[in-house]
Amino acid sequence: MQTCYRHPDRETGVSCSNCGRPICPDCMTTTSVGMRCPECARDRTRVRRVSAGIGDQPTLTYVLIGINVAVALGSLLSGGGSATGLSGDAIFRDGQLSRPTIHDGEVWRLVTSGFIHAGLTHLLFNMLSLWILGSLLEPVVGRVRFALIYFASLFAGSFGALVAEPNLPTVGASGAIFGLLGAAIVVLRSRGINPMESGLVFWLGFNLLFTFTVSGISIGGHIGGLVGGTLAAIALYELGPRLRLPFWASAGLVALVAAAAVAGSIAISA
Fold first, then answer.
1. Which of 17, 174, 265, 269 is catalytic?
2. Does residue 174 have an active-site annotation?
3. Has 51 been annotated as catalytic?
4. Per-residue pLDDT tens over the stretch 167-208
């Protein structure tokens, strides 16, 4: 159980909806956008800015979906892609992820593989998940934090895929999507909302069951992405507020998560 940042001897399950710091009943100020700590309650400008951002459109989510769909269309138009099997076109060959390609110095595949899919079914399932999670998370955390979480998850998912599969190629946005799912749970908890009541924990459990019971799924990619996204959200919404770090320092911690994943990917492929 967390303790109030102003009264360390008092346990609490509520966090400031602006900065994320845990607060006890004596430190809570009720506002139209949730509970605030004393400092944020006095900062009227910050309160207005945060509430205005809640209704923003998930623009980056739409951009990411557009890139994934554009890549899939390019694959289909070039003669590759199917509803079930792996693609055999140049886009797939030049963007897929595997240990031999990273060993040859093609590190960009850690990113490109996350925008390539093994077929239309794979694409549709991932894009639906990205639309749901992006629409939930991006308006709350903002585009910059959403981008940090997404790409840290993507790099971590690529690392996990390389650890788990030394031979076969891997593609798909699933690692990044699992990271968004883990991050959403952390963000809800930091705002005093029980993740069990949101349905996200059930969704995560179902997807993990699906991951471990269905063949042909990158277990390492899913677990790696989940760990990366969760760590990124913890850095932004748990460590940052507790240590009173400025945003750039919290973002730096997320960058370290991504850098560690890249370094691990290169090391495992050597």
1. 174
2. yes
3. no
4. 888 999 999 999 999 999 999 888 888 878 778 889 999 999
